[in-house]
Amino acid sequence: MDTLRVLPLGLLVLACLWEPRPLAAQGPEPFPTRNVRLIVAFGAGGTSDVLARVLGQKLGERWGQTVVIENRAGAGGNLAAAAVAAAPADGTTLLLTTQSLAVNVTLQPSAQFDPVRDFDPIMVVATAPTVLLVSPASKLRSVADLISHAKAHPDELTYGSAGNGTVGHLSMELIQRLAGIRLRHVPYNQQAMHAYVDLMQGRVDVMLPTIGGYVPQIQAGQYRALAVSGAHRQEALPDVPTLAEAGVGQFEPPAWYGLYAPKGTPAAVIAKINADARATIALAEVHARFAELGFEPIASSPEQLGAKLRSEIAKWTDILKDHPRAQR
After folding, report:
1. Residue 174 lies in a domain
2. Which of 68, 154, 157, 219 is most buried, with most CB under 10 Å away?
């Protein structure tokens, strides 16, 4: 028999018997297959950055990929948001930001993105109270001292923030309204960490950051804490009164941290990131780290973050429309 003729015939029979499986039947490609960028709307060392690094490290371990933390400070969070809105909608570029995404629609809107139209919400990661800080050398030893001095010398005391629309800016505006005082705002924008150096050295008088990340410095005596926001004292700072106890009135913490993806990210990818972030936040070591830093874990659904974003836009639109001082 001529083997050169038999061999092609055998191959032809095998080809007829083999049925290729459609690519769709093999299931979607697992996520993620490469590194993920987590863009943080504020500078390195701030509370958003600290939160992102705790979350990013554990997500990276779960995914077997590196979660690269990228700080894009500026414009009250708008620079980071614009970068993520323009990124490919595949889940490999994410945004971690505060309520500034809702505030800036009114305070400093961007032509490059719309917070509802251009992002897919993933979750509210955490909330955090704010803490009223002064230099350890400051003559202001209590909230009563601050209010008394500010009433006697309006606009003399200064307060620093990471920029217009940030937690520190808007929280201080609300406190001034409640206490009937006036302070001068010094926005630091992209160099927010310089504000904390200036505070420590007495070049600005007061700051009101979210508490996350600043507990160790307070405990080490690098800052003096006058009060915390919220309904109760913080476990990490039991001797620091609440603003309500200090006579300012009930002042709820406005700081919350949301995780977003570019609009059009596949629903399955959003669901996986949400599920993996929930599992990460549920870890005992992450819970302990959050508590140590003053964060309260939330780990919401995407729908809950979407609803919160829309309600906060409406809330801050009303507040800022009626109070033009907060625009500065």
Report:
1. yes
2. 157
